[in-house]
Each structure stands twice: as structure tokens, then as C-alpha cells.
Amino acid sequence: MLFCYNKVMAPAAHEIYRFLPKIDCGQCPAKSCMALAKEVAEDHGKLSECVRLTPYGLMLIEGLFSQGR
Ligand code: SF4
Question: How much is the pTM?
Fold first, then answer.
């Protein structure tokens, strides 16, 4: 049996949501901030789909991924 120790664990949706705009503007395919957070956490959504995400918010979310949380 093989194990992959290099796979980065995605942060939980609620952690990603903390740094999204939380205004539910509906301009991304997910239509709400929590829905997009869940999609990103489950690896089938992209942060670039958020048209309101600031560079600072993006940096904080990317930090979550680099921490392997
Ligand atoms: S585009 Fe961004 S701010 Fe608007 S609902 Fe989607 S995640 Fe939230």
C-alpha cells in the first residue's frame, strides 16, 4: 500500500470563509461566499471566481493552504 505524504490538506470551508468578503453579492458561480468556500475546500472551486476578493484576502487564504490546514 502506498501513502502520499506530500498531499497538501485543504483548509476547512469555515476557515476560507473567514477571509472572503462575506457579502453574498452573487457574482460568482457559487452565488454565495459560504458556497464558494465549500467548493474551494473540496477542490472544485477557484478563489479567482470571487470578483470581490482583495489581494490581502487572497494572501490570507493562500496562507491557509501553505500551512497544510
Ligand atoms: S463573488 Fe465573492 S463576494 Fe460575491 S458571493 Fe461570490 S464569494 Fe461572495
Answer: 0.85
